[in-house]
Amino acid sequence: MSAFNRRDVLMGGSMLVAAGGAAALTPRGRLVLLPEGVELEKMVPTTIAEWVQMPTEAIVLPKTPGSLADRLYSQTLSRLYVSETRLPMMLVIAYGAVQNDLLQLHRPEVCYAAVGFNISASKSAQVALGNARLPVRELTARNDSRVEAITYWTRIGDDLPTDGSAQRWVKLRQQMQGYLADGVLVRVSTVAEPSPDVFRELDNFAAAMVKAIKPADRAALIGRPLAARLA
């Protein structure tokens, strides 16, 4: 065999391997956990435990009109909940029907920094949901005029990645398994100097919010395995 033919064989083999790899990563199915026709505005109650919704425009949002994030999210919800005896709570939920390389959840570390906040603390944590545990991330965001304590989580399919690296791995693994999943980012925050008591209050609100949602809809926020443990 001539050198020219050997080169053609090697190049052809490499192209076949690459094509096979690309085919293996081509999603063939979908996993959508938000029930068809369900709107976040109707799914999440306006009264959660001792908190009641109050109108506001002071919430840091993961999208602005016309931005990339505005095109990524199918639905968003932003609310302020107040109580006579508890800290006020800001709730943001951003839902995307597909989470692939182009459409991916914007974590609060990114959207807060984009509007002038500095993330001064970040750690993984868990929120107790009965006998189950919801993996979350706790952040402290500061600017010249205010500080926010933040607890948030992301769901991609049934997975609950707690950082950007885990999120990228989850998407790759799902693609290798042959499907694309929907995803959601749920963020609870309050304007207060962060402390264990403040984060405990955020956790209490997050747990109360999940439990206030109809059992059939909970998987949209926390995935099916965790939702099944609360049923």
Can you put this structure into words, describing what you see?
The structure is a single chain. The chain is of the alpha+beta class and 231 residues long. The chain is built from 8 helices and 10 strands. It has one domain (29-230). Helices cover 34% and strands 30% of the residues. The strands form 2 sheets. An 8-stranded antiparallel sheet has the order 2-3-4-5-10-8-7-6, sandwiched between helices. A two-stranded parallel ribbon has the order 1-9. The longest helix has 22 residues, at 3-24. The chain is globular, with a radius of gyration of 21 Å.
Q: Termini, distance in Å?
A: 67 Å
Helix/strand/pairing category: alpha+beta
Tell me the Rg in angstroms.
Answer: 21 Å
Low-confidence stretches: 9-24
What's the tally of helices?
8
Order of helices and strands: HEHEEHEEHEEEHEEHHH
How much helix is in the residues? 25-40%
Mean pLDDT: 83
> Order of strands across the widest beta sheet?
2-3-4-5-10-8-7-6
How many structurally independent domains? 1
Q: Could you tell me the number of beta strands?
A: 10
Oligomer: single chain
Give a quick rundown of the structure.
The protein is 34% helix and 30% strand. It is of the alpha+beta class and 231 residues long.
Features:
single chain; 231 residues; alpha+beta; eight-stranded antiparallel beta sheet; two-stranded parallel sheet; 8 helices
Question: Helices, strands, pairings?
Answer:
Elements: H1 3-24, E1 29-31, H2 40-43, E2 47-48, E3 51-54, H3 68-72, E4 75-82, E5 89-96, H4 108-114, E6 118-129, E7 132-142, E8 147-156, H5 164-176, E9 179-181, E10 183-191, H6 196-212, H7 219-222, H8 224-230
Parallel strand pairs: 1-9
Antiparallel strand pairs: 2-3, 3-4, 4-5, 5-10, 6-7, 7-8, 8-10
